[in-house]
Automatic annotation (TrEMBL):
The protein's name in its UniProt record: Nitrogen regulatory protein P-II
Superkingdom of this protein's organism: Bacteria
Function, in words: Could be involved in the regulation of nitrogen fixation.
Family under the similarity heading: Belongs to the P(II) protein family.
Organism expressing this protein natively: Clostridium tyrobutyricum DIVETGP
Length: 113
């Protein structure tokens, strides 16, 4: 199994959810986030109004676990649907997941995803 951590523009959440549901995944975790990448953010006028001098932009952090064999196709669909071609589209971090357990039943392994 692979963990996919995706940091996206907030307005792209629906598109990301569509990609996952099309691939028959229903589980995901979403967190509101602030961040910057290569451009190191920029002075956000909204923060300046509040007197904050941080150069971070609002993003969403989405975490989902998928089967190894679905990874490449899902990554391709993300490029296709989530890229606007402008800086700040976000990044995807992929890592290995050893096991998963459903707390309600104690069931383990990839079949419970
Ligand atoms: N190396 C990183 N580690 C952790 N989070 C990152 C990293 N790079 C980017 N992010 C997160 O992803 C968000 C979007 O990054 P962004 O799309 O600007 O990346 P980039 O590398 O600058 O690409 P681009 O040139 O297309 O803007 C950031 O706001 C931050 O939350
Ligand atoms: Mg950037």
């Amino acid at each position: 199994m692979k963990k996919i951590e995706v940091i996206i523009r907030p307005e792209k959440l629906d598109d990301l959810k569509k990609i996952l549901s099309k691939n028959e995944y229903s589980g995901l975790t979403v967190m509101s986030a602030m961040g910057c990448g290569h451009q190191k953010g920029f002075k956000n006028p909204e923060f300046e109004k509040l007197g904050l001098s941080i150069n971070l932009l609002p993003k969403l952090y989405v975490m989902t676990i998928v089967w190894d064999e679905d990874l490449e196709s899902i990554l391709s669909q993300m490029v296709e649907k989530l890229s606007t071609g402008s800086v700040g589209d976000g990044k995807v971090f992929v890592s290995d997941i050893e096991d998963v357990m459903r707390i309600r039943t104690g069931e383990r392994g990839r079949d419970i995803l």
